[in-house]
Design goal:
The chain is about 40% helix and about 15% strand. Helix 9 packs parallel to helix 10 and helix 10 runs antiparallel to helix 17. It has 17 helices and 15 strands. It has about 450 residues and is an alpha/beta fold. The strands form three sheets. Strands 12-11-7-10-9-8-15 form a seven-stranded mixed β-sheet. A six-stranded parallel β-sheet has the order 3-2-1-4-5-6, sandwiched between helices. The termini are far apart.
């Protein structure tokens, strides 16, 4: 019986005691008694404990178990141990905000892209043939996206700078037939295989190219503004309607993933009725004087993005606006323009918006959007190249926010081009229509009027 007790005790204590604790016969027997495993032998075991050596062993056992149970009590989260294996909890899926994973699933054939219309795409439109006008700031971004997309095929580039044109042609292995000077641009409009044109020229050239493209039956993607003034912009959209071809004004921030999801949250009532919208747009790097000369001024060049973004999120347009502007840089003042602006807008629902804009943020491209209501707030902040922290004796540092718009809105530009392809292929309607563009232009002009008058101005559409 003693051997059985020792054997049983060793088995029981093997999972409870550290290796350094050695249990003799008495310890094993006492353990079994404590767990009520010996039943009728209790009296005889207490008799065994009368021996002095046995009492010392018993004391060691009590001390050991005190240490063991104290350790167990300190394991505060053991009680939260999972009782069900994650393999039995159903399939794990990505959060709705993980657009990159969604893109992977689509590319791998594991799901399909959700489009507004599920029409079969015509054979000749499965790859969209495009021509790109100009290789400036925006044009260079579009070129990279065109060449990287399986949905588009670059037919032509039209660019006046022959050295730049040749360098780009060499970089992308383009044929000489694809590289055109402005004097050769009629080739684009006469080529029936060209489905769409992308206009990234200086603003003064927009109207002429837009109208030529529409008359030639091409879909048109134009950097903002579509034309230099309201009336010419209106004429362009009227022509687009007459010929039945799409004209997309490139308000690319609508296509930024973070702003898109923020808008979805607002529209499903996450913050309740919106009380306040705040945007920040501070440029980096400081734009060149040559660019500022042809930019159209800070309101029609910069503020239009924040105006459009705010109205798009709210789903309404302001009735009154107020703006104040100043100029700290003498070079900008010489152009009769401003480098720092603050403005507010009041909407029919009662919502208010506030925006501050600067031409020069030394720390990077500062782009923020915040929407507040009685149920809470949603905001989209600045983005950085990667989430790294460096810790030294001087403290902690992180990579700065993105340097400029090509990196900050990289995904927005890609999704904007995809939208243009969707429209051409009959999978979606224009998300930025003529009414949107004309209203934003009107608001920007009214803000300029407010700067001059120093008063709140009513917006007349």
């Amino acid at each position: 019986m003693a051997q059985a007790i020792v054997y049983s005790g060793a088995i029981i204590t093997g999972s409870w005691c550290p290796p350094e604790i050695i249990l003799d016969f008495t310890c094993a027997a006492q353990l079994l008694l404590e767990f009520g495993l010996l039943g009728g032998l209790r009296d005889s075991m207490w008799a065994v404990l009368g021996h002095s050596e046995v009492r010392r062993s018993y004391a060691r056992l009590c001390h050991s178990f005190a240490v063991i149970f104290k350790g167990l009590a300190a394991m505060a989260t053991v009680k939260f141990a999972e009782t069900t294996s994650p393999y039995n909890c159903g399939k794990q899926v990505a959060h709705v905000t993980d657009y990159k994973h969604q893109g992977y699933l689509i590319g791998a054939g594991l799901t399909t892209a959700v489009k507004k219309y599920n029409n079969p795409v015509q054979e000749d439109l499965k790859v969209v043939n495009v021509a790109l006008f100009a290789l400036g700031r925006a044009g260079s971004i579009h070129l990279n996206n065109i060449m990287s997309s399986q949905r588009t095929n670059l037919k032509y580039i039209v660019e006046p700078d022959t050295k730049k044109l040749q360098k780009v042609g060499d970089e992308w292995r383009l044929s000489k037939d694809q590289l055109l000077s402005p004097e050769q641009d009629e080739i684009v409009f006469k080529d029936p295989s060209v489905h769409g044109i992308i206009i990234a020229t200086p603003t003064f050239m927009h109207k002429g190219l837009v109208m030529r493209g529409l008359k030639a039956g091409k879909a048109v993607f134009c950097e903002k503004p579509v034309a230099e003034n309201f009336e010419d912009t209106k004429l362009c959209y009227q022509l687009a309607e007459q010929v039945g071809r799409p004209l997309l004004c490139a308000f690319n921030r609508r296509f930024d993933p973070s702003f898109c999801h923020l808008r979805e949250e607002v529209h499903k009532g996450t913050v309740g009725q919106v009380h306040m919208v705040k945007t920040v747009a501070r440029d980096s790097p400081l734009p060149s004087i040559d660019y500022l000369k042809i930019s159209g001024g800070i309101f029609h060049d910069c503020a239009v993005h924040d105006i459009d973004l705010t109205c798009w999120v709210l789903g309404e347009y302001p009735t009154h606006v107020f703006a104040s502007a100043t100029t700290f840089l003498p070079e900008v003042a010489a152009l009769n323009d401003h480098d720092t602006v603050a403005f507010t807008m009041k909407f029919p629902s009662g919502a208010l918006s506030m925006t501050d804009i600067s031409r020069n943020a030394a720390y990077g491209y500062d782009q923020r959007l915040e929407v507040f209501g009685p149920k809470g707030m949603v905001s989209a902040g600045n983005e950085r190249p990667f989430p790294m922290t460096t810790s030294t004796a001087q403290g902690e540092t992180r990579p700065p926010v993105y340097h400029s718009f090509p990196s900050r809105y990289h995904q927005g530009y890609i999704r904007e081009l995809d939208h243009f392809c969707d429209v051409i292929q009959g999978l979606d309607d224009l998300s930025v229509n003529g009414d949107n563009t004309l209203r934003v232009s009107t608001i920007a002009s009214t803000l300029e009027k407010s700067v001059v008058s120093g008063k709140m101005e009513r917006v007349v559409y």
